[in-house]
Amino acid sequence: MPKQRPRTRIQEKNRAAILDAALEVFSRHGFRGSTLDQIAQSAGLSKPNVLYYFSSKEAIHTALLSELLDDWLEPLRALDENADDPVDELMAYVSRKLDMSREMPRESRLFANEIVQGAPRIMGEITGSLRALVDEKAKVISTWADQGKIASYDPYHLIFSIWATTQQYADFDAQMRGILSPAGDEHLDDAARFLDGFYRAALTPH
After folding, report:
1. Short-list 138, 192, 135, 137, CA closest to 166
2. Do 171 and 106 contact (CB within 8 A), yes or no?
3. Buried b vs exposed e over 103-128: b needs ≥16 C-beta within 10 Å?
């Protein structure tokens, strides 16, 4: 099989522009509500030019989700079973997930939209690599609980609750801002303090 030629600088720039534009469009409108015309216009390219790099809207969406999943799961992968203080280790995970909601809200909404639609393009990853990773880290959390280093909870639902309480600030940003009317992002600083106190009190063994 012949080797693929490396992309030129222009090709890399155009591909990145398409993916960034698609992230904006998909995160706002979901997969079904988005069109190639919208992506092309947002990227500042013609539709035929977009199709030169990606064969379809689905191909763009799949490329985005593939890159996103790798980044999105990194904080969970980094959960260290040999941590000196498992409570601090879990709090660092909570903090990083909230930081990602602050720094990557479009990516969070892209993922949420895919899940709401039944995960048609990433169900294989969810039942495969994601499930394996969650199983692995659930065992770590259970071991910490068995050793008396953290309070005992169902490890799966603990992980799910961390996802829910952190990604809420990206996926439901309009709701948060509508209720709290923050001048900027100070509500996320308040959320960080609240979540640290909430989970630290829950996880510290009594």
Report:
1. 192
2. no
3. ebbbbbbbbbbbeeeeeebbeebeee
